[in-house]
Write a structure and sequence with these properties.
putative fmn-dependent nitroreductase like fold; four-stranded antiparallel sheet; three-stranded mixed sheet
């Protein structure tokens, strides 16, 4: 059911690095994004796919991991993502991508979840360095990066204890806890 996919679709930050993600799998989830609705049907989003160790490492170095976990610099060797999807906006097609990035990202993430994979989306990116590493032409704007692979961590959703306590955290066993607002707090 959809609620099961949405509940399992969490931000995973540690992966079984040795378990590779096939290029065909990446292409399948990009096809889900392709089929997703697009503002004005302009379809200006493009994607760079990576499942190669050397390219993955160049991408990894441009990302800032888990802002709320101030004493953690990101996954260690053996827990790094085994693939990446970099979402781009082709400014030759449109000046804006409207809401397309959110819809496309959700389609991709749900497709990954269905396949037993997980991902973490990044907006905290050294975009200039990443564009240089990938030798992207200037007309491509980096929208976001998804780091992905087979999750190596447990993520638990919890009801928020108090309004505004949104920070996720890890317990002594390394379980990642994510507070969520109560349904009655969302509906006016």
């Amino acid at each position: 059911m959809l609620i099961d996919l949405i509940t399992k679709n969490r931000s995973y930050r540690r992966f079984h690095q040795e378990e590779k993600v096939a290029l065909d799998t990446l292409r399948e989830v990009i096809n889900l994004a392709r089929l997703t609705s697009s503002g004005g049907n302009l379809q200006s989003l493009k994607y760079v796919l990576s499942n190669e160790e050397e390219k993955n490492e160049r991408i990894f170095k441009t990302l800032k991991w888990a802002g709320y976990l101030s004493n953690w610099d990101g996954p260690e060797e053996g827990e790094k993502p085994s693939a990446y999807i970099i979402m781009l906006h082709d400014t030759r097609i449109s000046k804006t991508y409207f809401w397309d990035h959110g819809l496309a990202a959700q389609s991709i993430l749900l497709g990954l979840t269905e396949k037993g994979l997980g991902a973490c989306q990044f907006n905290n990116i050294d975009r200039a360095r990443l564009a240089s590493e990938l030798q992207l032409p200037d007309y491509y704007e980096i929208v976001l990066v998804m780091a992905l692979g087979k999750p190596k961590e447990i993520v638990v959703l919890e009801e928020m204890d108090a309004p505004g306590q949104v920070k996720y955290w890890r317990d002594e066993q390394g379980v990642h806890h994510v507070p969520k607002r109560k349904l009655e707090d969302l509906i006016l």
